[in-house]
Amino acid sequence: xxxxxxxxxxxxxxxxxxxxxxxxxxxxxxxxxxxxxxxxxxxxxxxxxxxxxxxxxxxxxxxxxxxxxxxxxxxxxxxxxxxxxxxxxxxxxxxxxxxxxxxxxxxxxxxxxxxxxxxxxxxxxxxxxxxxxxxxxxxxxxxxxxxxxxxxxxxxxxxxxxxxxxxxxxxxxxxxxxxxxxxxxxxxxxxxxxxxxxxxxxxxxxxxxxxxxxxxxxxxxxxxxxxxxxxxxxxxxxxxxxxxxxxxxxxxxxxxxxxxxxxxxxxxxxxxxxxxxxxxxxxxxxxxxxxxxxxxxxxxxxxxxxxxxxxxxxxxxxxxxxxxxxxxxxxxxxxxxxxxxxxxxxxxxxxxxxxxxxxxxxxxxxxxxxxxxxxxxxxxxxxxxxxxxxxxxxxxxxxxxxxxxxxxxxxxxxxxx
Length: 417
Fold this sequence. Notes:
Elements: H1 19-24, H2 36-41, E1 98-100, E2 103-105, H3 107-120, H4 128-142, H5 146-163, H6 170-197, H7 204-220, H8 235-253, H9 255-258, H10 282-289, H11 301-321, H12 325-333, H13 340-347, H14 351-364, H15 376-388, H16 397-403, H17 408-416
Antiparallel strand pairs: 1-2
């Protein structure tokens, strides 16, 4: 025996051990009907053939050193761990999902949630206070309301598509986005039914989640402007519909209750007081002044004028505050001034309301920092021009001129002139 050799407890390999020990690759003492390993752990012990019972330690041959002086036993036999208390006790393997009150979050869900908290939250709304709501309060509501959780996961997935347009797994990402959209919409529909059926006992957090969900749906259901089909409904028309849906959620508890929620900053239409007199381009006034009492649009004049009044504040805001947060907040919230009638005739694709919306889209092009608006204005304006046709071309000159401008200062100059 060499000086480097350390004597080990006598043992022999288990050749006729039970199937449980063989499966777990541990040494079986071959005791029947139940070996020591299975007895200690209350496991099922099965032998496939007759073996000796209670082999005596004296029957086991002493280990012999190899030529290199090392122990010949297999390093995977498990003998070296037998004397470690509790080493072979069974433990639960960590789950690959996060268990929440709403169910399990998959690794992909967790990745999308991480993307939301690190990259998406501050690209959805204008202003630091609004962005803070997206980072802190919205996720808290989402973990209590599955429809909102699927919504923010879907928006995060959509943002990932936007950031990686040529990713090899883009098709899978788009499919996952669609799954989130369906789950979010189905869950939201069920939640609205409960809220409207029993508004008095409606959970305040569910109502608050429904409020923010109605806004986030504008992003989640946003059209892909680069690959969208020209036959699809204009995105701005979807905005009008979603804002009308938001008003119905307000009615559940009243607009005053919104001020008490944590998501209230998102619903502000303005931050600063406007002192400049609202103005409107002459050609837009002419658009409504020339409506004949015999035309179908005559009964819609009140709705047209109300939207034009709201649009006039954008011209005044641009003149007073310039192109910045105040203008952008007013711009994004402007579709909320559209009445149900204005929404209906716009979806009928009547020329006058579409021309008014085209001028609104010029202001939308001035908004900075919101990825989900990229390319929307130009595509929508061109789509409107195609719908209304050459007959209404004089009223579309300013919006179409904006589509040929990439410099925002040039657009501002054109609007103020």
